């Protein structure tokens, strides 16, 4: 089960964001959120995928001024996650581009040496976590980030403004539970990351303007990059759904429609996120969708190109990964657990998870019989384990 979250002229926060790098046995991963925040600014507040109020996310001491990708994949064997000042990150990406032009096989170690020797960038307060690959072996490096939990199979590095939630999350993993088969390592690592993301996103949706993640200057959405199929790639086609379920005295589980759905996928260099809320319309006595928005999120070097469009029906809710967060209500109270699965294809998703179609404010969602059986078995096994 996921751990709960503990949680004029523009002046950019020096350590915005939460970034993480971790190695699981032979595999390597980078994680980052997509939030851009600014203190003391006249820039308008931006919408976020999980906030369903009118307008942008309500400003506090800091304002959400945009969304962007903070993981930069330089080549097949080298990627970096950033936290810090946007302009200095942009300068660092330019440095990477110039180094890559001279050496297309630039490694993380070579980059960190050049970065450290650059007095301007090295003193700019950036946090950097690097994932590099040589001879099919993954290597993690960092600048001004800090070591996180580690054991026989896991090594974690954390950076950014708020690192404690990531530390708490990865401390919950013990070595015996991470000794996975070689063929399953990448999927297992991605699912670990998605478990973490689902908890934060659900918290943001439920807490809205009081979300501790946003107050901690991270959130809105998340990216994960991993080394698989011979190259470092960002993981695409992820569906998130948050729903309630009720279990009867006869141990029969009924899963409601999700209250919130979100999907992230990549289209070239752009990250696209679609999200909407499902609610019960008392006047028409039926469930409908609202706050249907599609976010197009640019790399951090072009963050001003990010945009949002309402009621755009281009993205479909099927994919390679499903993060289904279930709040189960029963006679003695309630509990929340994540159900995370990898699917081989869109057809596989539709056959073994659910099908969803939308039109204007209407939707049709049908859970597959396989999904209903698996969810019920999963929940009942969790309850038996919890009771000892």
Give a description of the structure.
Helix content is about 25%, strand content about 40%. The protein is an alpha+beta fold and about 400 residues long. It has helices spanning about 85-100, 110-115, 120, 165-170, 185-205, 210-215, 345-350, 370-385; strands spanning about 10, 20-25, 25-35, 35-40, 60-65, 70-75, 80-85, 125-135, 135-145, 145-150, 155-160, 220-230, 230-235, 240-245, 255, 260-265, 270-280, 285-295, 305-310, 320-330, 335-340, 355-360, 360-365. It is globular and about 65 Å long. Strands 14, 15, 16, 17, 18, 19, 20 and 21 form an eight-stranded mixed sheet that branches. It contains eight helices and 23 strands. The protein folds into two domains: about 10-235, 4-Layer Sandwich (Glutamine Phosphoribosylpyrophosphate, subunit 1, domain 1); about 240-385, no CATH class. The two termini are about 15 Å apart. The longest helix is centred in the middle third of the chain and has 23 residues, at about 185-205.
Keywords:
eight-stranded mixed sheet; disordered N terminus; Glutamine Phosphoribosylpyrophosphate, subunit 1, domain 1; alpha+beta; 8 helices; 2 domains; globular; 23 strands; about 400 residues
